[in-house]
Each structure stands twice: as C-alpha cells, then as structure tokens.
Design a protein that fits this description.
Elements: E1 26-27, E2 52-54, E3 79-80, E4 128-131, E5 155-158, E6 177-180
C-alpha cells in the first residue's frame, strides 16, 4: 500500500479520501512489512479521521510519512501502536504536518531504535504524549515535536523509572509538564 492514496508534497493533494465513521476504513494487518504503509495517505487534505489500524509488529519504514501533510486530519484515536520492538524509521514523520492533530497514540515501547520517532509529531497541535521509553538510540526522537505549541497545560507522560527526559534537550517543549505515567 506504499503511496496508495498519496500525492507527495506541494500542490499535488488528494481531495477525495473520505472515511465514513459508520463504515470506517480498516487496515487489518497487525504485522507490518518494510515500507508497507509508507506515504499511504500523504497529503490527503480531505482525510479527517484516520483508518483503524494496530501495529503490533513493525519493520523498517513501515509507517514512514503515512499521514504526513494530512492538513485536516483531526481524529487519530483509531491508531494503536502497541509494538514493543521497534524498527529503524518505523514511525518516522507519521503525523508530521497534520496541523489539526491534538492527541497521539500511546507509545509503550521501552527501547527506541535509530530514528524510530523522528519528526513523528512535528507541526501538529499535540497537547499530551505518553512515551514509556527507557533506552534510546541515535536520533530516535530527533525533532519529534518541532513546532508543537508550547503550553504549560500540555503534558508529557513518562515511565516512572525514567529520569532522562528533559524539556528542550529531548525534544519535549520547554513549557510542557513532565509527569510519571500511571495506568490507573
């Protein structure tokens, strides 16, 4: 499905994707192959709700740029990212430039690999994020929240045993609160 509904960047936009809430698009695969959903919906400007999908096993660039530049995408509550073992670039730029997205799927993986979350939420309106990582690889979160609004009401939830997250240096906006995550 790589690039299936994509029109790349610039003025080449897709304006015909519509997901009916009563009959949502479902991507049933939970084990993802290399580049399988790469740029699948990139620049689909009419997409307001993400399809239902759950990534339990990921591969190299499986979701790279999947929703990038979907400027009217609002609802991403149907995206689940429970994979505990990540792959290089697996979620890189997943929601980049989705300027109306305010929430994100939880990120429970404990070990982050090279560039797995790079630019994942750049240019969104993210207000909170759960990331339970405790081990990090090169550039795994580089620019992951670039141009995300800074607000003292925004919250980053981390693993309670993790002390390495810091505002600014780890890509968390300076004014965000950093709080230990509790599943209760």
């Amino acid at each position: 499905f790589q690039g299936a509904f994509s029109r790349g960047s610039g003025s080449n936009t897709v304006t015909y994707i519509d997901i009916d809430p009563e009959f949502p698009l479902i991507l049933p695969a939970t084990t993802l192959a290399s580049k399988c959903y790469m740029q699948m919906f990139r620049n689909c400007t009419s997409l307001t709700r993400a399809p239902v999908f759950r990534a339990e096993e990921v591969a190299y660039r499986c979701c790279y740029n999947m929703f990038r530049q979907c400027s009217n995408l609002v609802d991403v509550s149907t995206i689940e990212l429970p994979a505990m073992t990540l792959a290089i670039d697996c979620y890189r730029e997943l929601l980049r430039q989705c300027s109306k997205v305010t929430s994100s799927p939880d990120l429970p993986a404990k070990t982050l690999v090279k560039e797995c979350y790079r630019q994942m939420f750049s240019d969104t309106k993210l207000k909170s994020l759960v990331c339970l990582a405790t081990t990090f690889a090169t550039d795994c979160t580089k620019d992951w929240m670039t141009n995300v609004p800074t607000s003292n009401t925004s919250t980053f939830y981390k693993d309670p045993t993790m002390n390495g997250w810091a505002r600014g240096t780890s890509g968390i906006p300076n004014s965000w609160q950093i709080i230990d995550y509790s599943s209760e």
